[in-house]
């Protein structure tokens, strides 16, 4: 298959590397360092120097592209695979390379758009495209919904991929629509859709096997199939619970002593501050903006090291988009705190004023 598709291999590899050419053309306009990773809250939380951002992601995706082709071509069952499915394998990763680098360059050049809207929409379009090709996918060991029941029965494979194609198309459409929703419900819909894409076709394949045990090749032993099915359900549930816990739970508590106070936050290190080290205290209505460079960013908590134009690098222990904040300074260092609501933040401010004599 390598010789048969050498033209497509070359063309798709060049497409995967095209972002490097674009980066070189934009080199003088790109900043020396810019964001290359974004957290669940849509804020940048990873930065790279220009040379790394231009060269490494496309090269890494090219390596992934070749690895996908290697496993696809060395699967003997793919020698008679649908041409449309093979074409999808050729162009999926290169298109991802072009889109991700293009988005990164656009943000670095100052384009205004919400990353948390663009990502669900992009994922949704990709899942719709893949779902459209599922019914055309013939049995193999590298592409498609590869679980024991589909691999052991051609009828199960066909039925599962027809059903799975519809699920992926519907789930992808839900992700596209999620991009139009407010941030938190949009993320909930995206996560729920991703979970459905992963689990629902597997459940369907298992139930199809139980309903049609005599069709196709012999079904796997019932105990083995049942164990695999239960493990898949448990694994998916654990992942979903973990992601939901990290994104939507957590709290911040304050412990006040005679000469210092301690901030205790879920999922992050505690912080102790001496009252004598505080130069000023400010109560501010509304949120303090910034991008996260290290720490925790979710739809519940914002913790760790952040940057903005007002403070430069500062430390933050707040709830997500708080109604008000308390800003502490010590020389050039800034600490931003909040309670769960405006009342608790005001109480925090009054307590710190009382303890420090500032305000």
Task: Give a summary of the structure in a few sentences.
By secondary structure, this protein is of the alpha+beta class.
Tally of structural domains = 3
Count of DSSP H/I helices = 9
Question: What's the average pLDDT?
Answer: 87
Give me the side-by-side strand order of the main sheet: 6-10-11-9-8-7
Distance, first to last CA: 74 Å
The beta-strand count equals 11
Uncertain parts? 216-222
How do the helices and strands follow one another from N- to C-terminus? HEEHHHHHHHEEEEEEEEEH
Q: Tell me about the biggest sheet?
A: 6 strands, mixed
- The SS-based structural class is alpha+beta
Any key phrases for this structure?
single chain, three-stranded antiparallel sheet, 11 strands, globular, alpha+beta, 3 domains, six-stranded mixed sheet
Q: How does this model look, in words?
A:
The structure is a single chain. The chain has 359 residues and is an alpha+beta fold. It folds into three domains: 112 residues, no CATH class; 135 residues, no CATH class; 105 residues, no CATH class. The protein contains nine helices and eleven strands. The strands form three sheets. A six-stranded mixed sheet has the order 6-10-11-9-8-7, covered by helices on one side. Strand 7 and strand 8 form a beta hairpin. Helix 1 runs parallel beside helix 3 and helix 2 runs antiparallel to helix 3. The longest helix is centred in the middle third of the chain and has 29 residues. About 2% of the residues have low confidence.
């Amino acid at each position: 298959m390598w010789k048969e598709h050498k033209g497509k291999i070359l063309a798709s590899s060049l497409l995967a590397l095209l972002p490097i050419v674009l980066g070189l053309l934009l080199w003088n306009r790109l900043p020396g360092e810019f964001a290359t990773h974004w957290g669940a809250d849509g804020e940048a939380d990873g930065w790279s120097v220009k040379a790394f951002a231009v060269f490494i992601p496309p090269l890494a995706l090219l390596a992934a592209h070749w690895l996908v082709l290697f496993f696809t071509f060395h699967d003997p069952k793919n020698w008679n695979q649908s041409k449309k499915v093979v074409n999808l394998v050729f162009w999926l990763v290169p298109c991802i390379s072009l889109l991700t680098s293009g988005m990164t360059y656009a943000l670095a050049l100052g384009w205004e758009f919400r990353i948390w809207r663009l990502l669900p929409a992009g994922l949704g379009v990709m899942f719709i495209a893949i779902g459209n090709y599922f019914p055309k996918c013939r049995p193999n060991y590298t592409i498609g919904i590869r679980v024991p029941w589909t691999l052991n029965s051609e009828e199960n494979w066909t039925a599962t991929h027809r059903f799975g194609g519809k699920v992926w198309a519907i789930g992808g459409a839900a992700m596209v629509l999620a991009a139009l929703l407010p941030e938190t419900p949009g993320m909930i819909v995206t996560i729920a859709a991703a979970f459905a894409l992963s689990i629902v076709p597997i459940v369907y394949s298992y139930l199809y096997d139980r309903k049609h045990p005599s069709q196709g090749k012999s079904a796997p032993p019932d105990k083995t199939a049942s164990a695999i099915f239960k493990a898949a359900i448990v694994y998916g549930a654990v992942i979903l619970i973990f992601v939901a816990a990290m994104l939507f739970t957590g709290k911040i508590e304050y412990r006040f002593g005679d000469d210092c106070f301690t901030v205790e936050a879920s999922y992050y290190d505690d912080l102790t501050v001496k009252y004598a080290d505080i130069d000023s205290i400010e109560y501010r209505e509304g949120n303090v903006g910034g991008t996260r460079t290290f720490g925790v960013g979710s739809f519940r908590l914002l913790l760790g090291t952040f940057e903005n134009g007002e403070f430069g690098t500062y430390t933050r222990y707040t709830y997500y988009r708080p109604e008000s904040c308390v800003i502490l300074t010590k020389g050039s260092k800034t600490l931003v705190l909040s309670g769960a609501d405006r009342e608790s933040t005001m109480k925090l401010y009054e307590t710190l004023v009382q303890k420090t004599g500032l305000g």
